[in-house]
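Usage example:
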Amino acid sequence: MTLRIHSRRDTAIAVAALLVLLAAPKIFPRGVVNDLWSVAFAIVLAASWNILGGFAGQVSIGYSAFLGIGAYTTALLSLKGISPWLTLPLAAFLGAAFSVLIGLPTFRLRGPYFTIATIGVSEAVRVLASGVSFTGGSSGLRMPADSYDFVSNYVAIVLLAAAAVGISWVIRGSSLGQALAAVRQDIDAAEAVGIDSTRVKLRAHAISAAMVSIAGGLFAMNFQYIAPGSVFDFRLSLSIVLMPIVGGVGTIAGPILGAIIFSYMQIKLLSSPALRDSYLFIYGGLLMLIMIFEPKGLVGLWMRLRRSVRRAPAAEIAA
Amino acid sequence: MSSLLPVLVNSLLAAGLYATMAYGLAMIYGVMRIINLAHAGVMMLGAYATFTLFTRFHMDPFLSLLVVVPLFYFLGVLVYRAIVRRLPRASAGPSMESLLLLFGLWLVLQNLAYFIWTGETQSILTGYTMKSIEVLGVRVGLPLVFVFAASAASLLFLNLFLRRTYAGRAIRAVTQNRDAAWLSGIDAERVSAAAFGIGTAFAGAAGTLMSTMYAFTPDFGRSFLLKAFCIIVLGGMESFTGVAAGALVLALLENAVSAWTPIPTTFQDAISFTLLVLALVLFPKGLPGLAAGLSRKVTAR
Amino acid sequence: MIRNSLRAIIGIGCLLAGVSFAHAQEIKIGAVLPITGKESKIGGAYKQATELAIKEVNDAGGLDLGGQKRKINLILLDDTSDGAKSAQLVEQLCAQEKVDAVIGGYGSQLVQAQSVVPERYGIPYISGGAGARGIYGRSKWVFGTLSPVDVLSQTQMDFLSSLVAAGKLRKPLKIALITENTEHGKDYVQGIHDYLKAHPGTFSIAVEESFELYAPDFKPLLTRVQNAKADLFMADAHLEDFISMQRTYTQMGLTHQMLTYGARGSDAAARKALGPATDYIFASGWWSDLLPYPQVKAFNAKWKTATGAEPQWYHATAYETVRVLLTAIRKAGSVKPDAVRSALASVELKDSILPGGVLKFTSTGQAVLPFVVTQNKPGDKVDIVWPREAKTGDPVAPIPR
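Running the assembly step on the lines above writes:
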């Protein structure tokens, strides 16, 4: 069984998994559902980032800006009396718009220059958000107390995660996906065959930014309190990059795997006193090991194991 | 303007500090196109190493450079040989793998520091920490003057090293074109190891110098790291004089904005980050590129 | 032989039942603190004090609940100074561990994030680590032992006014107000503005600026302060920034008639980092080990014996937070959430080590207690200079050049 969906059986399994997840609030205790929320949230971020970072190879360490934009849009408008659910489409739009705004100048840059530019942008946004008063400044914003509805929020985030995975699967098989892959491999060659690399990158950026912004809105609705330090954080941007890379950048299953492992590690490591003091050590060490031994992430590791298993019988015959 | 001289003096001295933070980053990036996120962690370790030497052996921080620099060079080469070199080099350019690898290293270093020294805020107080002298009529702190002197000395050393020694020229060759350097008979791997060592040594030295001015915890270095990025971008990532110029531009901008505009100081950081993005987009070859472009325009007439 | 194994089974069964029974009888208290990350220094101190307070009670056999002594099981988690993680961990404690009460963290942003959770589960929550007013008054389940930061700055203004009245400072006095860009800093500024509005004529603000945490260079900011030519320098900053700023301040040769960094100044770490440059700085804190109450002297001795060091304010507030929670649980006679909550709302700890000697919560759930103003004196001495009843020395004003 590969990690692709190309049989009815695989589709059925995926749908079944989705249904179980949606029914989770009825089946599992609240603590488990909280954890599933975090996993779904992580999947949205990882799968969305993967569209630009994995398919097109443009590594942005500034995605927390979109999360923050979504969270603040929802929080500010909810405090003005608008229903939080109605703010989500606007959050998506603003996130996409901002992605175009920063994409236009920065997509001219290549490789690490682009990456550094995204760091600069995201940090500038964070500083502005903490300095300006209508965003509540550094003390953040609190959602109106009656806006909390965990089950609906949970269902929404799971559906968003499914959508993010689904959309990235559709994109990969489409002409946009092919154009992105061409851009990733050799941008000059892609341009030479007539692909407008900037437009293609902007589209990918906008789609992924929109989804991350919606996730930001759901984040605000779930945690009820947001502050620049938590939603515009550089470390958050780094973890958004980490998850698809650990799982397998550019694949469909990679971001999902990475998100699950990342969330699980967060949850488990922090609650175990013995491991708590070594939390950074384990996290950093794991990262280093993966980068050295299997940069294609877990999916890459899986592929390697399968290949070596397949080869073994032949080796036995040869021996 | 009556406040011009203080702005210039303060900017110059601040630039010395900023440049110190950036040299190590620039060296590693220039030679290996690796964005070293562990730079902040190494600066932090440099500060703590100095702290230990100060509290245990009563060694003056500036003297401890004699210990820190070789020690960190050695550690840098070790880290390169043991870890960084193993990275599969998919493309000639920089990779996400190296960025994340070094980020992982940064986390490990932080945890190490928590283990050894705990999260307590530490600082070094010497006889000259609180003293100040007058420079061109402006009162400035003595540690900052020493740091500036160290930074200027580093710049001089780097330029001499890169121009006059074989190792230095080999480094420049690899920086400009790695493959061509191989073809010329330069062992790019050894050069990379040495460059990583030098970069680490500079980061450690920066930590030592900063420990004379700031209080620190294992989290130290993060806010400096992003400024250092800005500086190396301005500096064109290929020349250390460029880095110094970049540091000066950044420091001038911060001081000038503070002295001559009513913009609140909270937005100071936003200015440097915006400058970073502008620099990348408008003049990616940094200030040296800009200068070269201008001189071409002038001589073309 | 069968009889022997039967005996063994019954014995083990009883043992297990006894163990689970004993566990069921335990009082489960959860705590989420920043033990690593940005707030780790004080977070770690809170951990130490919390564990000490609970150990004290457990060593005495447990907490007396309706005639029966029950041990306390403290489940302490590290949120690595991250707000979202902090909230999730509190959720975990409430939903999975099913704790009887939650002790909140340290740091206004972290506590803000945590404080939305107790309402959903109806579990009492008490924080000794955040003074921001915005946190309290929203949920009846949230309590806090730290008084609001705007009262801190108002107390400092009261103290300064007393110096004017005593002839030590002459009005009018201009203030340079420099605060960190956090909720703490904003409340500090608010307190001063409120005071100026209520007592016009003596003070005015010459320059008001805020700065980002961990700024590398305070020169530009302090140059603005220098140009403003104020009489009083009032700042609010974290420890690292305080050290950085005060070093730059001293090197620039800046002087003002009075100098404060909000709650900072008398910390041992600051003394170590700045030496005589901390002399005459006055600070307002939630606690000082110099308070002339017998219970404070007893606490100091206890802390010294247990840890070998002098207690700092954050040790005292963390300790007292646990103590008032346990007192309320004992008063309630059970761990039922509603009972504990009402007990907390009405408790009065009459031998409190906090200033004023009495700890109780206002209708918002936050305790509003007096602050002490201390002033550093040369030779590593510290004196309480306000309120007058708790004075251990006279204030020195203006600062001698």
